[in-house]
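Query structure, 130 tokens:
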């Protein structure tokens, strides 16, 4: 049966400084258990995406790893968002994480095995004029 409950998709990665140059990454794991999206370092560097900060992460097997992060535009499910991304090292998975999914306003439909619109975005309302 394989990969039941697992969704993979193609994402695009773009730099804020080089709009229009989009690198597609097929077979990206959609992982709501991962806060951030992980993109191969060589892809981010080839787009000129700069390192902005370092972060520690705890892996599923309990290890703590250190990675650097930067800002990219992520395309998926017919929409795009700007988000922090992890510079994935060789051996790391390529992941579309929960933070990016929220920014894209997408959710996982496992029955259809695709990303779909999450619906209206919650917002605080201002008091109406009386």
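Result returned for the query:
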């Amino acid at each position: 049966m394989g990969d039941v409950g697992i969704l993979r998709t193609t994402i695009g990665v773009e730099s804020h400084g080089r709009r229009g140059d989009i690198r597609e990454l097929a077979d990206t794991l959609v992982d709501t258990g991962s806060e951030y999206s992980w993109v191969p370092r060589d892809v981010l560097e080839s787009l000129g995406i700069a390192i902005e900060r370092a972060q520690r992460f705890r892996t599923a097997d309990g290890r703590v790893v250190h990675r650097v992060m930067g800002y990219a535009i992520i395309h998926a499910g017919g929409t795009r968002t700007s988000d922090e991304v992890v510079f994935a090292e060789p051996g790391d998975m390529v992941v579309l994480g929960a933070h990016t999914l929220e920014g894209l306003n997408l959710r996982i439909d496992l029955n259809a095995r695709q990303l779909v619109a999450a619906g209206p975005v919650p917002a605080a309302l201002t008091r109406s004029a009386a």
